[in-house]
Automatic annotation (TrEMBL):
Residues 8-40 form the Helix-turn-helix type domain. InterPro entries: HTH_11, WH-like_DNA-bd_sf, WH_DNA-bd_sf. Pfam families: HTH_11. This is HTH domain-containing protein.
Length: 40
């Protein structure tokens, strides 16, 4: 997935596309830390 300027929207898109996805996997896909996922 191409990372956009809006991390929150990227996370929401991943959650919408994948009913079950871990914060760790989201972080890996977006190239951000697990903590950054949690903060958004």
């Amino acid at each position: 997935m191409k990372k956009s300027k809006n991390t929150k929207q990227d996370i929401l898109k991943l959650l919408k596309e994948n009913k079950i996805i871990s914060g760790e996997k989201i972080a890996k896909i977006l190239g951000i830390s697990r903590t950054a996922v949690w903060k958004h």
